[in-house]
Design goal:
The chain has helices at residues 23-34, 44-50, 66-72, 125-130, 154-160, 169-175, 178-190, 196-205, 214-225, 230-240, 242-246, 255-274, 281-296, 306-323, 331-350, 358-361, 366-379; strands at residues 7-9, 39-42, 59-62, 76-79, 85-90, 94-100, 139-142, 148-150, 162-163, 193-194. It has an eight-stranded mixed β-sheet. A two-stranded parallel sheet has the order 9-10. Helix 10 (230-240) packs antiparallel against helix 12. The protein contains 17 helices and ten strands. By secondary structure, it is of the alpha+beta class. The chain has three domains: 7-160, Beta Polymerase, domain 2, CATH 3.30.460.10; 161-259, cca-adding enzyme, domain 2, CATH 1.10.3090; 277-428, no CATH class. The structure holds adenosine-5'-triphosphate (ATP) and magnesium ion. Adenosine-5'-triphosphate binds next to helix 7.
Length: 431
Amino acid sequence: MDLPDPIIIPRNQHSISRKDIDREALKVLYRLRDAGFSAYLVGGGVRDLYLGKTPKDFDISTDARPGQLRNLFRNSRVIGKRFRLVQVFFRGNKIVEVSTLRCRSEYDIEGAEEVLPANNTFGSVAEDAFRRDLTINSLFYEVENFTVIDYVGGVEDLKNGIIRVVGDPDRRIRRDPVRIMRAIRHAARNDFTIEERTWQAILTNLEYLAMCPDSRIRDELFKDMRGGACARWATLAMECGLFSTLLPFYGPDLIPAVKDRLDQLFKVIDRLHGEGAKVDESLLVAMLLLPWAEEVLHLHGAPTRGGEAYQFARTLRDRMDTAVNHLNINRAQKELVTGFLVNLPVFNEAFGDGGWPKWLIKKSYFKDCLRFFQLVREAEGKGQVSVADYTLPEEDMETSVKVPRKRGKRPGRRAPVVVGKAKGGIFGLKR
Ligand code: ATP
Ligand code: MG
């Protein structure tokens, strides 16, 4: 491959300072350099430092092979099959990931190439730059001279606030349609503009997202919802059609009716994450589904008592099953989400100056549903929730609230979709 020369930005012309780099990451960089290998800080770490943000993680690339890395870092392990990555462990559960420079992304491999031996994927810095997704994610920072190495015009794009796929956007997006989500994510997070060719490639290739594994799409979607810019993300995603592609229950015809409501709800999610909260998935899903339940299922006119309420809850649950089937929301979470939604009108009705009625406070679902109710209130400009109430411990992030199981009775695979007639009523509905 004929690759261009890079632009090298010397230390006095960029603002990346060693003092902003994680101590452990620096240790890894220096150890590699002292052993005679090349060592670079890469990807999102360089991008965020350049923008004056605190990176989530510091990824390192080197010309050392995984085996050499294992010898160099005793407390490390190799992960990944085709693309082996070395994790170096430090005290306090700290992990620094080190990868060997590659000539291609795992997603850019196709056909006969797929059977290439793993070591045939190693490459030069230039090649590694060109296998990355966006120009702003393709920068290298090296600790020998503290320069930034830019093969793809990423620094210029960072300066001008532009999102651009590396190489031919059409081809790169077809090879890995998730790059659409990555482009929209970084545009939203940084309030950057998507360059025209990249934008066109997004518009024409949305349908290819259906070829990506659900699990990958799901992870990316929750990353966006928790990224602190999900309101802006949703606006952009609606504009290009990504929103309806990912969430077909929000078809293009429905978008105008739900747009503002979703925006208000998502702004609350953003405020919380911006202040360090970690909102659990069930609440996120409920926020995502609320405008749909309101518009399509007429949630607010729905019965709140007796058999009719039960029937409505069942319908909502069934419709939700279909709507978010591809997002792999687990059963316990779906039950919680149903409870949050169907109880919202109950809470609205019961809400008054004199505090909550006793019968409601006594319900097993009261606390959970109250958290959802209050989020929705904030979205409507009525009050503000406390961040502490929406911050989960890290390990509990995925399944925050578990639906308790009856002792000795595990629900079989064919258990009814509706939770039994528990004390709190069905879905916590008053009976
Ligand atoms: P974040 O701050 O969310 O971690 P990030 O850019 O670091 O953002 P990661 O998912 O950690 O995102 O990926 C690390 C790097 O790997 C990216 O910066 C990019 O260079 C590269 N990368 C990630 N996904 C892809 C992809 N699908 N195709 C090509 N390169 C990718
Ligand atoms: Mg990262």
